[in-house]
Amino acid sequence: MNAPLQGHTVSKPTTAAQALLSVDKVSLEYRTPQRVVRATHQVSFDIDPADRFVLLGPSGCGKSTLLKAAAGFIQPVEGEIRLQGQRVDAPGPDRIVVFQEFDQLPPWKTVKQNVMFALLASKTLKRKEAEERALHYLEKVGLAAFADAYPHTLSGGMKARVAIARALAMQPKILLMDEPFAALDALSRRKMQEELLLLWEEVRFTLLFVTHSIEEALVVGNRILLLSPHPGRVRAQVHSHQYDLHSLGGEAFQASARRIHRLLFDEGQSPQSERELDFADIRIAY
Amino acid sequence: MSHSSSPREEFEVVLQPLASVPLERELALGQRLWQQGWLRKSLILILLAILWEAVARYQNNDLLLPSFLQTSHALYDGLLSGELLGKVWISLVVLVKGYLIGIVLAFALTTLAVSTQFGRDLLSTLTSMFNPLPAIALLPLALLWFGLGQNSLIFVLVHSVLWALALNTYAGFLGVSETLRMAGRNYGLKGMRLVLFILIPAALPSILAGLKIGWAFAWRTLIAAELVFGATSGKGGLGWYIFQNRNELYTDKVFAGLAVVILIGLLVENLVFDSLERVTVKRWGMQR
User: Fold this and answer.
1) Is residue A86 located within the same domain as residue A104?
2) Chain A contacts of B187, Cβ < 8 Å?
3) A257 lies in a domain?
4) Are B285 and A153 an interchain contact pair (Cβ–Cβ within 8 Å)?
5) Are residue A254 and residue A112 in the same domain, yes or no?
6) How far is CA A242 from CA A173, A195, B92, B198, in A?
7) Tens-digit pLDDT profile for chain A (286 aa)?
8) A33, A154: one domain
């Protein structure tokens, strides 16, 4: 192919020692009744503390599967995922996932109980401290007034906020977000991105964020890993720490977006190949 | 077409506070009353009673069809003398025993089914074998094994509750979303704790439906079983009361017995299960 670099050679710097989460030549497979499908092939990357690391790629590049592997739900068939040097082999409360689906919140618990439930189930805190911490983080995401509401009475954006508050309250080593805003309408999504960045300014958590929107990747992340589809391999790593919501539509931002677009779809320089693209694969939405 | 010549001009409006129109208003009294389920259902019951009374008077044969008022009278007498209440008590004790044992077994079976492949196969094989088998058909066998007593009744009751409830509960467990399971596992829940804290509450709509069906099956089976073989160690329940009075041609008492069966069914359905649904699945927005 015309990829200039082989995937795993991109990010094998000598700084691997301080990395918080290191994904080392990980191949993932999933099974359908007929066949075994390779989702990613020898993907490597390192996430440092307080990184906002984004996995970006079209559907079928295995980015969600990678995130689930980092969470411990899926075991790699080759390679290894390490959190602070410890091999990841099961789900645990030090890596909290925020899912895209709204039903990640148990509907039988109020907003406050939902946040407390995570703390109690993982035996992180006793009931009283759990309640205090839950209220603290609900305050942070602006939902203190809704502490006693049931999830089904909330809007999509509010449910996403509860999930984020619940994840932050756990104070995990790393926060894993699997297209958390993809099910929201465009305006709510933008607002949530803004709030997520504000929360990061305040708390400085480490974030692994999966998305299929180039704009979202540029806005949310400080580093973007581009994956090629079928199976997912590392295509490039791009810096994006200079962009935030205010850079939308700016010259440099557009140039980066175009560069990522080109890298993802292997366009080369010729404009003719543009017609062969499957634009349904990528969402450029605001 | 020139854009500058368009007669539709841009404009902006400064919004004033809206004071002239109320933002919400109450429904009319009639509409609010009609929203009350118990009121609508009572109305249906009253209509049925009137229809019954009219047909009975037209028929004019107490032996075949006693009127609503005669039945009420017999019911009132039965309740006042304590005879009917005693029978109800005997039946309910047996019923609750069988029901509870059935629930425990159903949960054991479904928990096994969600955790192992063997459990899954066991549950599906057993339910497809025994669910179509009428509980009452097992009664002769039960009598042979457990003798003429409560235990035979409890055996057929367990049979009638177990499969319906296990099927519903298992279907409910399967319907729990993958995201919710993963969220639970993310917080370190597994095994029994995952079943208890995630699967059971998430599957509660199906479990409640199973409990309702199980209750109805058990109640039906019990009355039928008492009609067939009557007294348990000398003391008969409600079914026996109905059977005995039919033999003695006290048709109004037969109707009173049937009315009690219906009333208890209505009470349990409307008080126990409806309240249970109201404070759980309806409150949580899992069921309308």
Assistant:
1) no
2) 93, 117-118, 121-122, 170
3) yes
4) yes
5) no
6) 24, 17, 73, 42
7) 444 444 444 444 444 457 888 888 888 888 888 888 888 888 888 888 888 999 998 887 888 889 999 888 988 888 888 888 888 888 888 899 999 888 889 999 999 999 998 888 888 888 888 888 889 888 888 888 898 889 998 888 888 889 988 988 888 889 999 988 888 888 888 888 888 888 888 888 899 999 988 888 888 888 888 888 888 888 888 888 888 778 787 888 888 888 888 888 875 544 444 444 455 555 554 4
8) no
Domain assignment of residue A101, given as a range: 95-171
**Residues A99 and A88 reside in one and the same domain:** no
Residue A277 domain-assigned (yes or no): no
Whole-prediction pTM value? 0.78
A74 lies in the same domain as A27:
yes
Give the closest residue to A106 by CA, choosing from B228, B96, B143, B194: B194
Query: Taking a contact as any Cβ pair under 8 Å apart, which residues of chain B between 188 and 217 contact chain A?
Result: 188-189, 193, 197-198, 201-202, 204
How many domains, in total, are found in chain A?
2
Rounded Cα–Cα distance for residues B266 and B269 (Å): 5
Phi (first) and psi of residue A130, to 5 degrees? -60, -40
Angle CA(A107)–CA(A110)–CA(A114) in degrees, nearest 5? 80
- Residue type, position B158, single letter: V
Q: What is the four-CA torsion angle of B160, B165, B171, B172, rounded to 10 degrees?
A: 170
Pair A29, A153 in one domain: no
| Residue at A220 is within a domain | yes
A73 and A140 part of one domain: no
DSSP string of B142-175, one letter each residue: HHHHH-SSHHHHHHHHHHHHHHHHHHHHHHHHHT
Pairing status of strand A233-239 against strand A223-228: antiparallel
ipTM: 0.79
Query: How far apart are the two ends of chain B, measured CA to CA in Å?
Result: 54
CA angle A6, A12, A16 (to 5 degrees): 160
CB contact under 8 A, A101 and B177: yes
Domain at A223, CATH number: 3.40.50.300
The answer to whether residue A254 sits within a structural domain is yes
Interchain contact B286–A (C-beta under 8 A): yes
At A235, the amino acid letter reads: R
